[in-house]
Amino acid sequence: MNESAVAPGRRSPMTTVRTEDRDRAESVLGELFLPNRLDLRRGREPLDMRVTGIRLGGLTLGRLSYGRPVVLTTAEAGNFHVNTPLSGQARSSGGWPGAAVVTTPGTAAVFGPGRQAEIAWSANCTQLCMMISRSDVEAELEALLGRSLRARLDFDPVMDLTSPASRAWRDVLDMLARELEDSPGLINHPAVGRHVRRLVIDGLLLGQHHTYTDSLSAGASAAQRSVVARAIDLVHDRPGEPWSTVRLATEVHLSVRALQDGFRREVGMPPMSYVRDVRLHRARDLLRVADPDRTTVAQIAARCGIAHAGRFAAAYRDAFGELPSETLNAPR
After folding, report:
1. Contact, 311 vs 276, CB < 8 A?
2. Comparing C-alpha atoms, which of 166, 168, 147, 170 is closest to residue 156?
3. Domain containing residue 300
4. Domain count, the chain
5. 8-40 burial, b if ≥16 CB within 10 A, otherwise e?
6. pLDDT tens across 154-211, in order?
7. What is the dihedral of CA 155, 131, 73, 125, to 10 degrees?
8. Are residues 259 and 315 in the same domain?
9. What does the alpha-carbon distance between residue 59 and residue 131 come to, in Å, rounded to a whole number?
10. Which of 38, 60, 79, 259 has its CA 20 to 30 A from that of 320?
């Protein structure tokens, strides 16, 4: 038997298993996602199940292949699942009312909670499988809508990852697939993991049609303007914070792309350009009232979150026509 796995005595956020045993394959997938049953009657190739998985709070990710044709039948799901073929094809049914769908690279199957699913994998099929907490998805949708849900949330079963609406989400999926292939590093960081969860949930809600899409679209513009306004207030209230676009987006629970678009729409520039301008103007205000005998330009710059003195001086002169030291030492 060819089988490998993370040593059971070690604590690891990762699940890495390769096995030829059907019972073991079902057990591993059951522990990572949900109970399942494998049908190996199609084809005569040996089973070669390979999975690399990781849990990030309410998001579980797995890169999964079987090395032969299989039919996977799951138990009733309690959460949302999204399967994206990275190679080969999958034929899926049961996760929604309606006919079976075939997915290939560039498309994804979206499964809702409360239903069983049957998924036929081609021999060369590898999929990025995601399980997303139902409560997290519904809570985020309620936050975006500004009200509680009045009916079941159902997604269209096939997601076109080449469409403009879902292209940014495809970039996130590609990053996650690479992380799982190369052994996760970046997404193991708690802050990054939280941001990835938010991007996945928001990308699904905003990039795939569902029962609340029309309501979400109607209220999206005003809601997003309000969120961007909160981000602008944060920058003004705490200019000394080590802001990055990712951190600012995380603070206001918005995707990086949406934050960037919102800043360009509201203030005509990217988030970090706006942060720089706020810091420069705050530094100018402080330099004008500071005592040059007790305060240095470097101290003012540090209070405003500016770390590079040379760049600060050049940017300050470009903005105000004089050096910071000239402002500090100007007659009062």
Report:
1. no
2. 166
3. 220-332
4. 2
5. eeeeeeebbbbbeebebbbebbeebbbebebeb
6. 999 999 998 877 777 888 888 888 877 776 566 666 666 777 888 889 889 988 999 9
7. 90
8. yes
9. 6
10. 259
